[in-house]
Every structure is written in C-alpha cells, then in structure tokens.
Amino acid sequence: MLNATQSKRVMPAKFITAPGSENHGEEPAYGFVGAMAGFIFYWLAFSVPFFFYGANALFFMLYTWPFFLALIPLSVLIGLVFSVLLTGRLLWMIPCIGIAVFSLFWLVFAQLTGW
Question: In whole angstroms, what is the distance from residue 105 CA to residue 87 CA?
Fold first, then answer.
C-alpha cells in the first residue's frame, strides 16, 4: 500500500487567480485622495455657516460641537467610498464627494437648528 508521499496523484497546491488579474504594476492610491477630499470638504462645509450667520454661528457651534465633530470620520469615509466607486475619475469623484459632504453637514445643521 502506498502512503501519501509515494502517491503520484498528489499535486502541489497552486493559488488560482482569475484570468486577467495579474498585477502589472502599482496602482495609484485613490483612497488617499478621496479621504483627503472628504476631510477638506468637511472644513469647507464647516466654514459656510460662519459666512452666513457670522458670530452667531460660533455660539451655536459652541454648544453643538460633538455632533459636527462626529461628521469628520463620516466625511473621510464618504471620500473613501466615492474614490473606490469612481476609481481614477477625479472629475466625477471630487464633485460627488463635495456634494455628499455638504449635504450631510447641512442636514445635521438643519436638524439642530430646527428648520
């Protein structure tokens, strides 16, 4: 009787990859670009109420800062999601991130102000 090392039917394990999935080089880091865009658009959205309401927005933000602070990771995550979905399409990715982050910020601002 043959043991496992003597059998000729034993094949070494090979990692099977999908056809056409060979790495042809290093891909650009679109996730970093999206995360940075989300972070930058958050600060732009944060500054807009100060332009509209002046110092009154400062007093409002003084009491509600935890809500707006919680939007920073969400903005970065939105940037990452759009950068993955729209890989390499910066002309579509940047405006989509901007619209989504501004909408999220103004949704929270409108809910807190009671509009």
Answer: 25
